[in-house]
Request: fold
Amino acid sequence: MKRWIALIFAALIVAVMFLPAVSIHPHSQLAEDVKSAFPDSLSLFDVATKGSGALPTDKIPALGSMDMRGFTLLLGAGLLILGALLCLVKKRGALQAAAVLSLFSVGVFLYEAFYLGSLSESLLYQLLLAPQAWIWAPLVIAIAQTAIVFVLIMKEDSLGLSDSAWRRISGALSIAAAALMLLPAFTSSVPETITDNPAAAKAMTISSSVITQALAEEPILSAIGAETGAFDNVLSGDIAALEPLSADGNNIAGIFQITKQSATPDVLLIAALAFLVLSGILAFIPAVDRWFPLSFSAIGTVFLLIQSASLMSTTSADMFTNASRQLYRLGVGCPTLVPIAMAVLSICGCMCAAVGVRAANSPYFVSPIPKKSALRLTALTIAVAAVVMLVLPGIQFDFYKPGKTKSVSTVLMSGADAVTLTTPADITEPKDNKGKTMYSEEAGKTEYTDLMIKDKMQRIARTYQITTIMILAFALCGIAALILKTHKKLPIIFFSLALLLKLLSYILTAAGMPTDVGTVGGTVFTYVSFPLLLFAAFFSNFAHMEELPKKYKLFLMMLPFLAAAFLFSYLPLYGWSYAFFNYKFGIPMSQQEYVGFKWFSELVMNAGHRANMMRVMSNTFAMSGLNIITSWLPMVFAILLNEVTKTRFKKFVQIFTTLPNFISWTLVFSFAMAMFAMDTGIYSKFMLATGAISEPVAWLNSSEHIWIKMWAWNTWKGLGWGAIMYLAAIAGIDQELYEAARVDGAGRWKQMRFITLPGLLPTFFVLLLLSISNIINNGMEQYLVFQNSMNKDTIEVLDLYVYNITIASTSANTYSFGTAIGILKTVFSVTLLFAANFVSKKLRGESIV
Amino acid sequence: MTTKAPINERLHKRRKNKVKLSGWDIAFNIFNYTILSLITIACVFPFYYLFINTISSNELVRLGQIQLYPREIHFENYVQVFKLSGIADATLVSISRTALGTAWTVAGSAFLGYLVTKHEMWLRTLWYRLIIITMYFSAGLIPWYINLKNLGFLDNFWVYVIPGLVSPYNVILVKTFIEGLPSSLEESAMLDGAGYTRVFASVIVPLITPILATLCIFCAVGQWNSFTDTMMLMPSGKFYTLQYMLYRYQHEAQSLAALVRTTQNTGAIANLAVKQTALSVQMTVAMVVVFPILMVYPFFQRYFVKGIMIGAVKG
Reply:
């Protein structure tokens, strides 16, 4: 049964082929008859069956040179359908084959989507084609099918092959992936249709393999005069117009030329190749632990993926010079399937190796590293990473022009510089972006001279040099001690010393420069090196223990979450300091103007601000207050609902009254716009019909009764949802109470009044207290969507007001003011919360926080 | 006659029904059913109203003649709306952020919720409080915005996903749920040599699926509905979501009208009944946005009650 799901995907892929994938907007300069010859949109099916023929090549011959490459689509669809069909075959290995086929189709579709998408970037296509989201649909379907097939494989546990067979397969795949590097990854050619000389055009064809790109000089096809706009004639296929451009009258040789660009060796690609080959070879040597081929192929795959992504996008930027690029996109400079195939092969290889390891370790997972040395290895890895960070650029000088606050010059200095620098005199003084000196040459004109700055920089550099050398020495000693296992406590001492020294170095260097000249700070590598050294010390401390204590293990698992909480919740608190400055964007804090409590006092002292705040606060309190005053409504609703004896009706009501809670305020506003439209809405029509109003009323565009209107929408949205809590509470009331009441002759009303209602009051009380403590936080979404120029004065609540005067406004000077309001708001609501909690504790003996 | 049968709910009700209803009871019932029906209709009617306006003749809609039932039904609006530039991309962004954001947040909350139940953790209470306390304060709009800007999250798709990793409320829900489980299961797994991650994946997760389902719904609905983050954090117009497109259509009617003009082939659609107007586009997009919620809602309705019940018991 589950295998049939794959077939559904096969059907889907056929279906999406017919959806419009590329819409076409003919260029306005084209003649009317040419324009009308263009179809509105192309479906993937059109692309697959007709290729570039789907466009009017008879009107614009140049279009014919554009290769739509429909065959890849057909190939992908074919592979995917074949994979789906294979799922139905109940033979060993059929599912695996289906998985591989589906995976390949993922690659093919990925390529196709990128390719079609990239066509639209070219000059010609920008005017004509706009890819739609459907272009990605085949890819999504292929990925889904692949995932399903893999789940099927895992479910049925028919791994089928033995672990050594998997191992050999992975080796073969890795080597195949590496071998693909020799095949052409790019072809670039001159479109034959824009020349008289097809043979010469053919001779211009270049193809370069991945490996040549990684190692050798890259041949580049470029066009002369592309930037002059002369190639616009290509649109009309006017070859003769190109001839003047050509030096020798032969429009190919003169316009196009092949040059070589010396490429810097691509380290990642070479490393990927090395890892893949290595894992391929190791996979065939049974004596080697099976973890090695797996990890090597994983590393190689990651490198390759990083690179193949950039290879795929190379067409748009690097492969051709910018000017000629537009022309070449006519049909040249396209990545072939090779980079993608390489990536797919290596992923497959990696997965096969993983399956092999899993099969060999089944049912228990055996770690490749013995537990005893695991921590030592961890410490070692981290320490090496720390050393690498120490060598990378670690200190950054930012300079400002005298009196200006924008950074104009940045000087970076790395740990490697610090070690190799013979003398800090090699440090040059800061130059602005025009290469001029930034401070005056002689003393007296400004406060600082270049010589003084240079002197300061040299001193800082000297400090940095000495400390860095010492830190590196300590870290290396720590690593040596770890490897040699000389003394248990030695590594931790070394790493701790390195960490302390690093902190000291940071403080010393950062303090060395006067703040009005520039700042000296660490780079990201410096900041990363702190925790790395800390962890190195931490783990080397446990290296001699049998195992890391559980409490630390758990803490380490917790660490990423704490880091996230810090980044997204605690780090913003630093922004509270903006309230004490005249904060402007793009300037470091040290350069901001300090204003003290100016913004806070302005809230009260400045008449304009005070009036605004009074207005906003009265809106806030009024609308929150209305909601709080009527917060018993959900309770009554729940009681009424509970009195319904017909379960089906009860369920029906509950389901549909909860629904509004799950739609966004934009949607609510859509309803409002439709129903309360001035002329057409049902509200107007109804009121006119009943004679309640004599002419249509602008219900939304008015400030009348806006508080009540907002309250009504809020209640509409929240009534059913709010009742759920009370219904749950009612379900918790002891049924025997009702039983006893009935025996005593209490009627329905009395049961409601004396049992249900008192049973709900505690819940009501808690919710009431919580909503009172949230009185100032009524959010902004509702008021934002209902806001317009007519009702702005009465609808602006605090949150909305802050948004309106800061992010939504064009002036950038209100950020500090907005922050000040935010601070007061947080302090106020936290105080309220504690007060509410206090009240709750006093009255009920229970806290609500 | 089974006189000894326990008094279950049904018997209970039957007996209650047998009691002759008084006149007041009947009056109350009529009142009750009427008012509940009215509330239900009030809740459902806007959905219906919007829907009939999108499938009726656009010309009649423009004249305000579609009020209670559809006329001249056609579905051209739905076909055309996906041809508007940006809608298809926005759909993709909305779906991606909902899927990825939900998976990320729920996985994060589940694992974190599990971790904070481990009393042997170093300084557990401190870390737990540090996480929970973030629920009660916020740094405010501007520091939040500038912080995300400094972290490079402006115009970045991942701002929809990554900051959702730690959500204190969800953590409390999961923690409360796990604490309600018998600890013997976990202990026996530990005795068999499973580590924390293994216990979490193989023992805890299967047991807490009900609460995870609840979280999934809340999270997915939240992601799908959110639009203010797009509004503030995507200044250069990348990664717009459907909700934000809808918001813009509502508030920038002129740009919408221009969009409708340029996108549609005026020559081809001369028929006013199916010709798109700014109003029809706005309403159709709204229907497209609400549709997934309407589809998913009935299946997951039963989880809400469970979720809110657990939520009521705060940790």
